[in-house]
Structure formats: C-alpha cells, structure tokens
Design a protein that fits this description.
single chain, 103 residues
Length: 103
C-alpha cells in the first residue's frame, strides 16, 4: 500500500513536470511567432523606405540631367561674401550694472 502511494506521488511529480515543460514550450512558440511577425513588418517597412529613397534619387538624377545647375560668374553678387554685422557676428559685450561710487 505504501509502495503504491509512493509510486502515485512520483507519477504526479512527473506529470506536473511534463505539464510545466509543455506550458513553457507553448509560451516560447507564441513569443517567437510574435517576434517573427514584428520582424517581417519591420523588413517590409525598410524595403518600402528603400524603394522610396531609390525613386527620389532617380528622380533627382533625372531632373539634374534635364535641368543642370546654373553656373554664375565669379563677380556675381551671389558669390560675394556677406559683410559681418555687429549684431550677428560680433555681439556687443554686456554692460555691467554694478554701481560705481558716487552714482
């Protein structure tokens, strides 16, 4: 009778262990399916972006071959350097607000 009880207890442990392995395997399979779905979606987005970049690049090349850049002579105002302005290139030093004696 005691031997049968021990055998039943050992069988119960084996069944619980097998159930745990099955549950973990199913969870892992679900997780892998979700990850592969996300990976496929990301690959599709990357492929679409790549096609858009290639289309934009070829359109840019086609436009440049039809309408080349305008070459201006060196004396043209567009080639002259912009003179520095005090406000933009060299800001004035901050005036001190400290009081001087006698003021």
């Amino acid at each position: 009778m005691i031997g049968l009880l021990i055998a039943g207890f050992a069988g119960l442990i084996i069944v619980i262990y097998a159930t745990d392995l099955i549950v973990k395997a199913r969870a892992r399979a679900r997780r892998l399916r979700r990850m592969s779905g996300r990976l496929a979606a990301a690959a599709a987005r990357a492929e679409q972006q790549h096609r858009q970049r290639q289309a934009a690049s070829s359109a840019s090349r086609a436009l440049t071959s039809v309408l080349p850049a305008i070459n201006r002579p060196p004396g043209d105002p567009a080639h002259r350097p912009v003179p520095p302005t005090p406000d933009r290139d060299h800001p004035r030093p901050a005036r001190s607000r400290a009081r001087t004696p006698g003021s």
